[in-house]
Amino acid sequence: MNNSNPITPVDLVKLKKTVISRFLGALIIVSLMYFLPAGTLNYWQAWVWLAIMFMPMALVGRWLMHHDPALLERRMHTREKQKYQKWFQILATPIFILIFLLPGFDRRFGWSAIPAIIIILTDILILIGYGLFFLVMRENSYASRVVEVAADQKVIKTGPYAFVRHPMYTSVILMWVLTPLALGSLWAFIQALLIPFMLIVRIKNEEKVLTEELPGYREYLQEVKYRLIPGIW
């Protein structure tokens, strides 16, 4: 874990309020996006997914609050600074909205029939993806949501970064591509298959920014060859 600029007690209180309000807001909004289209609370796949996503999220948030509040504060940033990434954000938003909405409609109208064992296995893989997400956060205090380079930022070469250059996106693929299957929706899963291609486009621009603005990143590109999956890409 990297040392970051200290956060004052006053800032820490504000950060806690922001984190809690966003956490509760996300929980309410996502729940409504699942259960309203489903037209019922009798949707066990959604209840399990909410548990395996939001319980670890709360634990990781608590850990970061105590061990790396500077990173938690960075994770609150949502506005991209790069024009390219702003366009990416605009184009990606409706795709993610559909991924959240379609499973509920699928549950209501019975479009898909995914076996319970497949749903449980995808839930386990999603948890593994969240575990990788935590390892990335523990290793890299600069893992912001947006493409930006901090003044004191350094290249991270340890932990998951020793194997792939963008382990955070590897975890994103595990969690979000598999989410529709965990919710019992084949149609939403087809939509989610766009996510890896979207991330490939994002990564190419992000690496251009990092190469230009982050000292040592060009050398890191030579040391770690793969971006997302060792031996593949």
Key structural traits:
233 residues; mainly alpha
Topology, element by element:
Elements: H1 9-38, H2 44-67, H3 69-75, H4 83-109, H5 116-139, H6 167-182, H7 186-192, H8 194-213, H9 217-223
Helix pairs in contact: 1-2, 1-4, 2-3, 2-5, 4-7, 4-8, 5-6, 6-7, 6-8
Could you describe the 3D structure shown?
- With 233 residues, the chain is mostly helical.
- It has a single domain (9-223), classed as Four Helix Bundle (Hemerythrin (Met), subunit A) (Up-down Bundle), CATH 1.20.120.1630.
- It contains nine helices and no strands.
- The protein has helices spanning 9-38, 44-67, 69-75, 83-109, 116-139, 167-182, 186-192, 194-213, 217-223.
- Helix 2 crosses helix 3 (69-75), helix 4 packs antiparallel against helix 7 and helix 5 (116-139) packs antiparallel against helix 6.
- The model has no long low-confidence stretch (mean pLDDT 89).
